[in-house]
Amino acid sequence: MIRLALALFLLVVPAAAHATDAGWALLRDGGHVVLLRHAMVTGTTDPANFEIGNCATQVNLSARGKQQASKIGALFAARAAPIERILSSRYCRCLDTARTAFEAEPELFAPLDLLKSDAADKAAQIAAVMKEIRAYTGSDNMVMVTHLENIVALTGVSPREGEAVVVEPQGDGLRVLGRVTF
């Protein structure tokens, strides 16, 4: 049993490294949209007294998450992946990921906030994000810092904290071109 687990692990690690290398190649070329899940956090759910403009009432980046965000920015710079535009959810964990990683003030983009529970509101959020992605024509990359459930709803992919998913519009949805783990 242990041998089987080890064999599976050894098969997965090179595949993840290859996927990351392919993702970096895309990002070096520029002109892509990156859905970036915020870096590691201190908890799992926001407290009952949550306020969007008050970080003290939210789940925030952990010390490890702050290090991860710094690593994200350092790797974007080291790999010469040009960034033209950064949009972020208004949640502090997303804003802090963007600010720490890219040393810039991101544009606040409310549709990147956690998805609403009402189906119509949720559909409107997804439509707004899709509209922004379809409209992007820059030569460098656009990074959208958001949450797990948003990326899953847009792509069907479940990224880890701090993972980047490179996408392009395809039909009514998005096609995943690559992924980068940090």
Automatic annotation (TrEMBL):
Keywords: Signal. This is Histidine phosphatase family protein. It comes from the Bacteria. CDD domains: HP. SUPFAM superfamilies: Phosphoglycerate mutase-like (SSF53254). It holds the Pfam family His_Phos_1. Residues 1-19 form the signal peptide.
